[in-house]
């Protein structure tokens, strides 16, 4: 930043006015000085030329008759003029005819053929021809001192300099008074801006002092303060509203956390309390169906079998709840080992074969070779059971289910495809959410392998958590309702045992 840029507006205005005035005055001073000096020299030259011509006219007769003493007397009269230092009269041939020298020994210059004058040293030299009735009789030379001219010029310059200084001083006073007209409104504007910035008081206004550009600036500044005041008030109201909403959100968050803790506690207590009576119910139903407690009729057997199926269903639901609680609380423990994914899928399909046969479905498996991954076998089997069980439940009787196992460069890729009811595009991103059953609860039907039977909505969420804990991915694809679906399971080959354990416990 230049020094001028750091000045206040008052200093800048005074500086601009003084600089402009000084440049103008200096320019005028230089012009007047040069012009006056030229005029003074021209006046001296014209006076000396006129004097030389007068002397020449008086010397015509002396030159005509060769009267040197008379010529000398005529030149001697110049002694009365202090500025004239020498004079020389020449005849027609340019020979010195008579001379006058204020200083003895002053040499005479050679005669000039034409009239001329020049300033040389501290003298003005004038050469003029002596002419009478258009006939040349000789020439005359006059040398005049320029010291009087120099004194005159010096005195004139002093006067001009005094005038210049007086004008500059007057300009300073004028600039100091004039700058107030411009600087005071701007300084008032700046002071108001500082006040607003410091106090945030947008009710103040700048007083308008004129209808010029500064007045327009004041109007614009006042309008801006009005708009800022409105905006500030709106922001203050919105800030208060946001604080209220934030407090409500924090309260809601605390309530949700409490509800979540209550839900977890409820599920823990419920699963614990139901496990014992369910175990007893299962034991008695097995004893009744086995004839240990005596024979039962066919109708009684069917009723007991139905109760047994519901008991197993409740046990499965409690197992899902327990698994989800372990995931939520970070208590899940994994025991990763080398697992043959083809063998695990084949074993589960064999176990599900009776239910597939009951539904008259066709199941095929395309796995050309064994594919090994590092995983917790029990949890991997839970994932596979969930996928295959869903395929059976949501495929119509007589439908087709196909399992494909691919060995990709760095991962095993298992695909479970079916020709079942399919999934809407809007539901695809949500089917892995907890407690999302993808159906209307009013039409909920319980069952393990019945067509479109709905469970607790935890199976796919548990499967997704287990797969991601192993560093894998799981997703679903479907062209829409009635067009079947495909579930993809990808598990990396290089999952380390420690990595799996940390991922599942965290």
Explain this structure to me?
The chain is an alpha+beta fold and 506 residues long. It folds into three domains: 3-170, Beta-Lactamase (2-Layer Sandwich), CATH 3.30.450; 200-331; 332-505, Histidine kinase-like ATPase, C-terminal domain (Heat Shock Protein 90, 2-Layer Sandwich). It has ten helices and twelve strands. A five-stranded antiparallel sheet has the order 2-1-5-4-3. A five-stranded mixed sheet has the order 7-9-10-12-11. A two-stranded antiparallel ribbon has the order 6-8. Helix 4 (147-199) runs parallel beside helix 5 (213-289) and helix 9 crosses helix 10 (497-505). It is rod-shaped, with a radius of gyration of 61 Å. The chain starts with 8 loop residues before the first helix and ends with a helix. Residues 438-445 and 495-506 have low confidence and may be disordered.
What distinguishing features does this structure have?
single chain; 506 residues; alpha+beta; Beta-Lactamase; Heat Shock Protein 90; 3 domains; 12 strands; 56% helix; disordered C terminus
């Amino acid at each position: 930043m230049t020094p001028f840029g750091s000045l206040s507006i008052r200093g800048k205005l005074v500086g601009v006015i003084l600089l402009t005035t000084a440049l103008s005055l200096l320019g005028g001073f230089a012009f007047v000085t040069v012009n006056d000096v030229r005029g003074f020299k021209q006046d001296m030259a014209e006076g000396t030329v006129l004097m030389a011509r007068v002397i020449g006219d008086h010397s015509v007769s002396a030159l005509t008759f060769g009267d040197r003493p008379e010529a000398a007397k005529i030149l001697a009269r110049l002694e009365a003029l202090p500025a004239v230092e020498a004079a020389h009269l020449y005849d027609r041939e340019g020979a010195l005819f008579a001379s006058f020298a204020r200083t003895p020994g002053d040499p005479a210059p050679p005669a000039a053929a034409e009239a001329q004058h020049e300033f040389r040293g501290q003298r003005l030299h004038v050469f003029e021809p002596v002419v009478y009735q258009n006939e040349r009789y000789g020439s005359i030379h006059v040398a005049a001192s320029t010291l009087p001219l120099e004194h005159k010029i010096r005195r004139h310059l002093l006067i001009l300099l005094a005038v210049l200084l007086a004008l500059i001083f007057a300009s300073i006073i004028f600039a100091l008074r004039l700058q107030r007209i411009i600087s005071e409104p701007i300084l008032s504007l700046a002071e108001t801006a500082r006040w607003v910035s410091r106090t945030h008081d947008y009710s103040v206004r700048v007083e308008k002092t004129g209808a010029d550009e500064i007045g327009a600036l004041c109007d614009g500044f006042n309008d801006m303060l009005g708009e800022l005041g409105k905006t500030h008030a709106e922001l203050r109201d919105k800030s208060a509203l946001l604080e209220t909403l934030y407090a409500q959100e924090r309260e809601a968050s605390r309530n949700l956390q409490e509800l979540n803790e209550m839900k977890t506690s409820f599920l823990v207590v419920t699963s614990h309390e139901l496990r014992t009576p369910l175990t007893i119910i299962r034991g008695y139903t097995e004893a009744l169906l086995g004839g240990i407690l005596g024979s039962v009729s066919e109708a009684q057997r069917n009723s007991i079998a139905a109760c047994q199926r519901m008991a197993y269903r409740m046990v499965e639901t409690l197992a899902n709840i327990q698994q989800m609680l372990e995931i939520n609380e970070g208590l899940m423990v994994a025991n990763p080992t080398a697992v043959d994914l083809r063998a695990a899928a084949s074993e589960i399909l064999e176990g599900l074969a009776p239910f597939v046969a009951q539904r008259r479905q066709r199941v095929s498996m395309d796995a050309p070779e064994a594919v090994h991954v590092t995983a917790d076998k029990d949890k991997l089997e839970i994932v596979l059971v969930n996928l295959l069980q869903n395929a059976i439940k949501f495929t119509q009787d007589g439908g087709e289910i196909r399992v494909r196992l691919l060995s990709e460069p760095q991962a095993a890729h298992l695909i479970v495809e079916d020709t079942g009811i399919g999934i809407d595009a809007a539901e695809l991103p949500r089917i892995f959410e907890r407690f999302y059953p993808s159906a209307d609860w009013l039409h909920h039907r319980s069952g393990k392998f019945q067509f479109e039977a709905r469970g607790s909505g935890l199976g796919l969420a548990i499967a997704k958590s287990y797969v991601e804990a192993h560093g894998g991915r799981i997703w679903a694809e479907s062209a829409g309702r009635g067009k079947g679906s495909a579930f993809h399971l990808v598990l990396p080959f290089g999952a380390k045992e420690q990595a799996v354990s940390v991922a599942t416990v965290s």
